[in-house]
Fold this protein.
Amino acid sequence: MPSEPCPAIKFYFDFISPFGYFASLRIDELAARYEREVEWTSMLVGVSVLKVMKIPPIVELPLKGAYVIRDAARYAREHRVPFERVSPTPVSRPLEAGRLFAWAKEQDADRAKLVAGAIFHSYFAARDDIAEMAVLRRCAEHAGFDWADYQAAHEQGAPAQLLSRNVEESLAQGVFGSPFFIVDGEPFFGVEKLPVVEHWVASGGW
Amino acid sequence: MPSEPCPAIKFYFDFISPFGYFASLRIDELAARYEREVEWTSMLVGVSVLKVMKIPPIVELPLKGAYVIRDAARYAREHRVPFERVSPTPVSRPLEAGRLFAWAKEQDADRAKLVAGAIFHSYFAARDDIAEMAVLRRCAEHAGFDWADYQAAHEQGAPAQLLSRNVEESLAQGVFGSPFFIVDGEPFFGVEKLPVVEHWVASGGW
């Protein structure tokens, strides 16, 4: 009898989070080296930060806001990641992007990652407004999804329900920021935790 | 004519910050590999968080509070660091510890690091209350400082003034948490940034 495969690494992200974008470019490759799958889930940092933690958005905090903006640009240079959104404003509302991804994941989780990649690239490298349906349509069609199918689902409210469920589930798991990883029940926050995630996966934990 | 030595790496910490403790065990060794000095400065996270950012202490935040407590214990296990303060309560007031360190640094910056190490160890490994003067006296004497000298200075208010100045200076530098590093003007927050600090020092930046 073959042994059970290890459960997927859970990867939570918000489409307007630069560090979520950076992590999206590394997590699958990291996991594959240990023959692990990754389940991607879009969430909304605004909900966890504003409604649950009841603090302002990080970029609006004195001192820390300026730091994270600088840190994101520095990370992009260090890792040679296309990053044209050095100023965090204007911010797109990530709601429609999260809905599209949540719907696409239900159809085909692997192809949904291509949608996510296209959305992240559109936002952070091409400086598109990912609240615009025309931008999201291009991202969906890039990954082979049928926009008419999505529109029909959208009219019925299914994508909105899926995203809401994902956000609730992420909060129930303790997810409070982007990126966030859960490996065999163990939570890790932030792109700088990827080496620790790798250590955990490689060693089986400690 | 000999070339100018590189400026010291600035290391800011709060004595009740577990991640500041963890960083204190690594930063000098890291810097020495690149022939860099480290200047240690004690600050007060409570001032930056409560008064400047105007948010609650991190450990009191929903979701994130539980995460950082877990993360600290996990870091200690991973790096085999003595760490007996898995629960963050009771919290010692770090004011007197910061004052002692600020005064000791004025006397002898190298020996002051021994005081800091003793304070961190007392708090995190021995679970002592570092608000108690008897504990601080032991830490000062461990590093060869004369307690009567310190008491005399303390009565004149000099240590309090030094710490206040350090806190103000740290805020002026954008320091908002512990540990915080400034390398050639470049700010880095958090112990997980140490590999990035090392990359920066080794490469000269990017």
In short: Chain B touches chain A at residues 48, 52-56, 61-64, 66-67, 70-71, 74, 77-78, 171, 174-177, 186-187, 189-190, 192-193, 195-196, 199, 206 (CB under 8 Å). The CA atoms of residues 140 and 178 of chain B lie 22 Å apart. Chain B has ten helices and four strands.
